[in-house]
Amino acid sequence: MLSGLILVAVGIVWILQGLDLLKGSFMTGHSFWAWMGALAVLLGLPLVARGTRRG
């Protein structure tokens, strides 16, 4: 579950940087990172869901 939460958190940061909403990185303003962030979130959510089901 922890790895899923990390993936989701990193994905959100990448999305914000890719969309130029979070400044201060070489990733800022490059849509590639927004797509990679979305992919990270999509990969992390099932891990979080699996972790919460196990209790």
Question: How does this model look, in words?
Answer:
With 55 residues, this protein is an all-alpha fold. The chain has helices at residues 2-18, 31-54. The chain starts with a helix and ends with a helix. It has one domain (2-54). It contains two helices and no strands.
Biggest pleated sheet:
none
How many β-strand stretches? 0
Oligomer: single chain
The topology string of helices and strands comes to HH
Overall SS class: mainly alpha
Shape: elongated
Instruction: Report how far the terminal alpha carbons are from each other.
Output: 10 Å
Number of domains: 1
Condensed summary:
This protein is mainly alpha-helical and 55 residues long. Helix content is 75%, strand content 0%.
Index terms:
single chain; 55 residues; mainly alpha; elongated
Which helices and strands, and how do they pair?
Blueprint: H1 2-18, H2 31-54
Helix pairs in contact: 1-2
